[in-house]
Amino acid sequence: MNIEVARQRYKDVFLPDVIDNSQGDFLAKHVPMKNLLLLDHAEPNDSDKKQPMTEEAIYEQVFSIKVDDQFVLVKGASGAGKSHLIRWFESMLQILKQDNEIVLYIRRADNTLKGTIKQLVELDEIKSLPNHDLYKKLASASTTIPELELKNTIYYAFINLIESDDGRGGEDEERIISNVDRKHLIALLQNSTFKDRLMDTNGPIDRIYNKIAENKTFEINDRAAEFEPADLEIDSEFRTALINEGADEKARKIADKMLDKEEYIAKLVVYINKFRERVVQRCTGLEPGDLRTVIEEIRQELYKANKTLTILIEDITAASGVDDSLLDALLTNKRGYGDKKLCRINSIVGVADGYYRDNFRTNTKGRIKNFIIVPDEMFNGDTDGLVEFFARYLNTVSLDTTTIESWLKDKASADRYPIHEVTLGAEWDTYKLGENSINLFPFTKHAIIYLYRKEDVTQRNPRAIMRNLIEPYVKDSIESLDRYPIRRTTLEGIDPKLQNRIYNRSDLEDETKIRLTQFMYIWGNGTDEIYEENGIRYIAGIPEPVYKELGLPVIDGKTVTKPQETKKVEKLVPDKPEKHAESTHTEKENEQVAIALKEVDKWIENKDYRLSIGATTKNVRALNDARKNINDFLYSVIDWTTEGVSIDAMVKIKGTTSKFLVAFERQTMNSDAVVLLPASIESRKIIEAFVRWSGVGNKSWDFPNGTDYLYRVQRWTESIKPKIVESILHYDDKTAEYFSFATAAEFYRLIFSGNCKNFQNPNNFGPDLLLKKRETPDFNNGHIKAWNDLLKITSGSDGEDARSCVLQYYNLPQGTSITSTNYEFDYIAFVKAVKKVTNTGLEFKDSELQLDDPVRKRKLYSEYLKKILDRVPVVVDEETNAIRGKLEVIEKLIDLDDVDDEDDIKDIVKSIRAFYNRANDSHIRAAVRMDNALLLSCSKNAGMIFSAIKNGKQAMECSNVVESLIRLSKDPLFGLTPFADLLSKTSLDVERSNQEIDSRMKATSGNDGDESMEEYKAEKAELAECRDILEEVRK
Amino acid sequence: MFTGNMVTEAIPARVFSLYKIVTSRKEITRAEIQSMMEPAEIYEGTSYFSAIFKAASELRIIDTQDNLVVPLVSKEEMRDIEDFRHFAISKLNTFEDEQFFQVTNVIFNMNEQIYKYPLTDNALLNILSQQTGSQITAPMIRGWRFWAQFLGFGYMNNMSFLPNAYVFVKNILRLMNLEKNKEYKIDDFMLMFEPYGKIISGNLQPERNMNIALSSALRELHDDKEIELKYRSDAKKRWILYPSIEQFNDQIASIVYKGVKK
Question: Does A741 reside within a domain?
Answer without folding.
Answer: yes
